[in-house]
Write a structure and sequence with these properties.
single chain; alpha/beta; Rossmann fold; 6-stranded parallel beta sheet; 10 helices; about 45% helix
């Protein structure tokens, strides 16, 4: 049975950073996004309120900013190579992230079969963000289940890769998981843990466990 590899983005594929941080860096708004990230991480605000406030913060956002943020982000090495190997082995890879879909979906060009993020309006913004389209930790499991249906696999065939508390519910729902540069809370739930900068090494761990 083919496996479905489910990758988180922020802190996982992007080491030590997140898509909103990298976008804000291009806009000169690192201090402002830092405050919002702290509020989100502490639970003072939830993903919908965070998205609304980020949308307001990015009032001058352009597609060029998004492109520059994507290209300059501190990606793990070997992402395209790993996804090529997954495809060539007849398996599937997908990204599920709470970050904006307009950033996440760029990873389709790197070889992901699917890429799901929080739905934001088109860039540059001319419409408000709809909180109903903003993903949560629970939504990661729901999307994973839909992807299982799409690809003809079950939860038992899934491998999850993540780094933070937003990945907890997904880690608990699948049999194989790798905590990537994660804190001890998530690492304690994972089948395997990895600290470093190369997705090829991460995939080797999952492949050895799952073989």
């Amino acid at each position: 049975m083919a496996r479905l590899h489910l990758f988180d983005l922020d802190g996982t594929l992007i080491r030590g950073s997140a898509a909103p941080v990298e976008i804000s860096r291009q806009l000169g708004l690192l201090e402002e996004i830092g405050v919002l990230e702290q509020d989100l991480g502490s639970g003072r605000i939830g993903p919908p309120e965070y998205a609304v406030r980020v949308h307001a913060l990015w009032s001058k956002l352009t597609l060029e900013h998004v492109r520059a943020a994507f290209e300059a982000a501190p990606w793990l090495a070997g992402i395209r190579e790993v996804w090529r190997e997954i495809r060539e082995s007849g398996e599937y890879c997908a990204v599920i992230s709470l970050s904006p879909s307009f950033f996440v979906e760029r990873l389709l060009g790197w070889g992901a079969h699917a890429a799901h993020g929080s739905r934001f309006p088109e860039v540059p913004f001319t419409r408000p963000v709809d909180p109903a389209g903003i993903l949560s930790a629970a939504a990661k499991v729901r999307i994973a289940d839909q992807l299982c249906t799409d690809f003809g696999v079950g939860r038992a065939d899934c491998v999850a890769y993540g780094d933070s508390m937003s990945d907890v519910e997904l880690f608990r729902s699948v049999p194989l998981s790798v905590a990537v540069n994660a804190d001890r809370h998530l690492a304690g739930l994972a089948t395997h843990s990895y600290a470093g900068g190369d997705l090829r090494e991460v995939y080797a761990l999952a492949h050895s466990v799952g073989s």
